[in-house]
Specification:
7-stranded parallel β-sheet
């Protein structure tokens, strides 16, 4: 039996994956009453995660509703991601305790950590684990959890409980969409919850992103934009976007080639 919030996330994911679902179908799948399903759908519609219809619900048509795989994303804007990762390294000092989220830019940052001295790195990324597991100066802590094949991230209740038990100085977060009104968003509800737990575990939240993510909205909200302390982005970002981020009290670092 699923807890209420977990059940709601699963219902929203079910509807998103199938585009639509009926109340009887959802009741049978999740082994709850139809009245419970109707109540959950009403709550999910209020959170703008789906739209109710007569007898069921349909998925909202949002940008980036399909999530590309890690491999698909790895080569996109590769030069910009390298610049962002290099800039992010300057905010890490020997002895820090940090959290690295799963993402193509955070993975590039992980590759650079061997330049530093002793670190403690907590991560839910299987790619970061592969990169750092042989580094004797890095104490590597894995969250465990359920593997999402799209992002190669460990997510879900097991990961969330592990994250809730630690406190880190700095989180380096990956995201799919950044929007002043919709905040930080990602295509998967379960992964969104795990990212929220990461943010709660950190004193400082650093968002690593390329400029293409700004103005995008994905399916599941992670947090308001104002909950980020620092954004590191490539110089393809517009002046207006920088102004909007800074108006939220966020420090913005523009990653550029040396000499520019």
């Amino acid at each position: 039996m699923l807890f209420e919030e977990e059940r709601k996330r699963k219902i929203a994911e079910y509807v998103q994956t199938r585009s639509r679902a009926s109340v009887p179908e959802l009741a049978a799948h999740f082994q709850v009453s139809e009245s419970t399903v109707r109540r959950d759908l009403r709550d999910l519609e209020g959170e703008k995660l789906l739209r109710r219809t007569h007898g069921g619900a349909v998925a909202l048509e949002l940008q980036d509703s399909r999530e590309p795989s890690f491999v698909e994303k790895e080569d996109r804007l590769a030069e910009q991601k390298e610049l962002v990762a290099e800039a992010a390294l300057s905010f890490i000092q020997e002895g820090d305790t940090i959290f690295l989220d799963s993402g193509t830019t955070t993975y590039r940052l992980a590759k650079r950590l061997k330049r530093l001295g002793k670190l403690t790195v907590v991560t839910n990324s299987t790619m970061v684990m592969q990169e750092l597991h042989s580094s004797p100066m890095i104490e590597l802590v894995m969250t465990g959890g359920s593997l999402r094949h799209e992002t190669l991230a460990m997510v879900g209740p097991i990961a969330d409980r592990a994250i809730a038990s630690v406190r880190v100085e700095k989180l380096f977060l990956a995201i799919n969409g950044i929007d002043p009104e919709s905040g930080l968003t990602t295509p998967n509800l379960t992964e969104a919850q795990t990212k929220r737990m990461m943010m709660e575990s950190a004193k400082q939240v650093y968002l690593l992103t390329d400029h293409s993510k700004y103005g995008k909205v994905a399916f599941a909200k992670v947090a308001d934009l104002s909950e980020v302390h620092h954004i590191i982005v490539d110089d393809g970002i517009s002046a207006r976007a920088v102004q909007e981020m800074e108006s939220e009290g966020i420090q913005v670092t523009i990653a550029k080639e040396r000499g520019q």
